[in-house]
Amino acid sequence: MKRGLYIAGILVVVLLLGFTSAGLLDSIRDALTGKATSQPTNVSVTIAGASQINVTVDNSTLTGGVVLTESSTTSSTIYLTICDPDGVGDLNDSSAQASFQKLGETTRTDSSCSLVGDLDTYCANYSCSVDNWYWDGAGEWIINASATDLGNLTRIYNDTFVFSIQELKALVISPDQLTWTGISPGATDEGADNDPTVVNNTGNYEGVINVTGLDLYGATTTTERFAVGNFSADESDGACGAGTFLVNSTTTAITGTDSSPGNLSAGAGKEDIYYCIDVVPLLSSQEYTTDISGSWTVSF
What we know:
Oligomer: single chain
Number of domains: 2
Low-confidence stretches: 10-17
Number of helices: 2
Order of helices and strands: HHEEEEEEEEEEEEEEEEEEEE
Shape: rod-shaped
Strand content: 25-35%
Helix content: 10-25%
Distance between the termini: 132 Å
Structural class: mainly beta
Mean pLDDT: 89
Largest sheet: 6 strands, antiparallel
């Protein structure tokens, strides 16, 4: 009986030793075989773009407004100061851009402003060149500037800066002469042989078109006068009475006309003017011209 209890006690002790030393035995085995079953891993996280960047605009180069170039583009340069509390190394240089905006007008943009250089540890300076076309509307425009950090999480727009584009009155007409041939005294509603006069707006003026007419004088009998009051001008080809009658040596606004600024290459920016003699006066047969009085003038 005692012997049986003794043997049972030994078995219990052996089993307990087996459980408690399992980890020790595994470690000894791993050390001997090189086959680890677990390994520690170090972890780190870097957050980019957590701090808000700031964009300011130097538009001092636009003081006095932009003067457009007839039939062409005008380039304006402004400068951006972009600051990032995370340092200039966190700025995305290729994201800096600036645009000129006006309600009803095409937005003009430089989408790739150039880095001029770092101002300090946190701020950098950028140069932006924006082109305006000759038909861009006169008045106040807004400068909108933006940039991102390298995390592309923070884009700041600054639209508190404004400048003006000046009005540009400029035009080219074709043809630059008017002719009536073979008309008889007393005839009515005589249109010109070679109208309309096409007025091409090469600036940004928006408004009516004017004609300054002068009396015509005989080429042979220079004392005879063909009064300009017999002529009317209109934006459509119709009866003379529907147009605006001209007044000698007076700039007259032609009712219904519009300078219609726009891209001439795209078919915009053009207006037609038709001329008509209401009643041909009773004058002698000869040519009547502007050689003595001077040419008529089409103007804005």
